[in-house]
Description:
The protein is an all-beta fold. It has a domain at 4-87: Immunoglobulin-like. The protein is 1% helix and 41% strand. It is built from one helix and 51 strands. Strands 1, 3, 6, 7, 11 and 12 form a six-stranded mixed beta sheet that branches. Strands 13-45-46-47-48 form a five-stranded mixed beta sheet, with no helix packed on it. Strands 19, 20, 21, 22 and 23 form a five-stranded antiparallel beta sheet that branches. The model is unreliable at 335-339 (pLDDT under 50).
Amino acid sequence: MASASTLAVVAIAPGTATLTLILTQQFSVSGSGLTWSVDGVAGGSAATGTITTTGLYTPTLGSVGAHTVTASSATPPQIGNATVYVTNYPGTYTRDIDKLRTGLNPSETVLTPNNVRVAQFGKLFSYAIDGTADASSLYVPNVNIPGKGPHNVVYVATEHDSVYAFDADGRQPDPLWHVTFINGTTVTTVPPNDTNECCDISPEIGITGSPVIDPTTNTLYVVSKRKEFQDTGIYWFHHLHALDLATGTEKFGGPKEIEASVPGDGDGAFNGVIRFQPLHQNQRAALLLDNGIVYIAFGAHGDNRPYHGWILGYDASTLEQVMVFNTSPNDPGNRGSTGGGEGSGVWQSGDGLATDSTHDIYFVTGNGLFDADQGGWDFGDSFLKISPSGLLLDYFTPHDQQLMNDDDIDLGSGGVLLLPDQPGPHPHLAITAGKNGTIYLVDRDNLGHYNPLNDNQIVQSIVNIFPHHNLSTGNFKAPVYWNGRLFFSADADNLKSFTLNNGLMSISPTSVSSLFLNYPGATLGVSSNGNANAILWAVQRVDYDPEGGGVQGPGSLHAFDATDLTKELYNSNQASGARDALDFTAKWSAPLVANGKVFVATNGQLAAFGLLP
Length: 613
């Protein structure tokens, strides 16, 4: 072989490829008579993946990692190189990756702070969808689609009451399958005006809460809302669907109509019973699947009464209801229309119910009556812990809950993050923050109940850390977590990072980005390769009016070095022209990072970003 200085460089296409073990990659070259090798081994090996004499690369079980594909010849002396990444990420089955809701994918081996740059990283492809994707997308590798073979699949749900299965690698232009729960005439999505809430979810209400997947039974669970025109009148319904991952067909006798009732004399009660009212109830929080039970949370559309916070549990294999919990069942002062026994919805801005190894369920509520300190059962603006059977186990309510309720500055505007075990006297911590600008760090083993004077009974509170704190500003998202760092994205604020040390948060941000966020803040996710190469991903929505009537524009994807938020690595507005452009982004769906790609579902598309070929 000639010396390096005399070699002619030939171009290999693609120059970069990202594969899972079920995929192959055909490389092509501008030269002729070339020998193909992988990591210097002609034809490759079991440790690197193999390549044919015509340039077809096939991963092997031992080839996970990065490899150099080379085409070379001695006569004439020429050489070309390409990089192939082989990944084996097991999948994203629930919003925010895990049941703690950390938002962390710790197994991303392709994307790093060094290669997520506008010259190397951008939008690879996109798929059209039929409505806004407020629900977060999910990812399952190696799904065997009947008649189409194995595919890595991204699942997307929309407010048009649709669920899509798309090829995650852009190798098939049409959906692998698509199901809809409406017919457009006698069964439709719900117009926002039906709920007396014009703009929060618009222009239609269908699927809002993120689905959850059971990989052991290959089932996707999702809740739809719809309007039906029947001979006897007009009706509204929520249904729980169990869909086969490979076909989208209903399983386990689904769909299951969602109904519930509890004893009580609170708002909307009749003859001592409060019944679930599907028109008024809003299924926004992400579903939780734990220990064979699908848990579903409900808030309301705006504060249009009557409504309550509900947590319902369904057997995952039969879809039979096994648990009911209501957050505001009683009206101790017999106040009726003046505000007794109502509210306390579980919105959480799309964030999910959380659990840990105990299987107990953690969540936060919005504004409503609070009377638990007086022996009641109403839990406005509270952090709750309930058992899988629906028994209240513990709670924390801020000392100024009455002010929060009066001014509509919900604690439950954002969700809950359960931290991995921490050093110090409180190993089992949870964190939340709402519209009032305060972060609350609580001990999951002793939430602290209620202290009318202050919140000193909890582990830590950081007051006024976010600006404005009124009904339309403040924090609307749960934080995400990586390696002792917490990342927050509040409205009318910059992205902020805090550190944890011996079970306590830094009392001020340790890193702040230059990205300023309008309503309702950005949805976040973190990717890393263990404790290295951490990237904070943020999907920004351009919306200057919380009621949706102001200036709105295309959204954007941003990437930051998670160790230093002053270092923005990439954003989708950097590329010239429309290469990386997004349309309007949804309020609540989070970025999905899987196997070297970042998926962003918007009002009209699923866009996939990754290393450019």
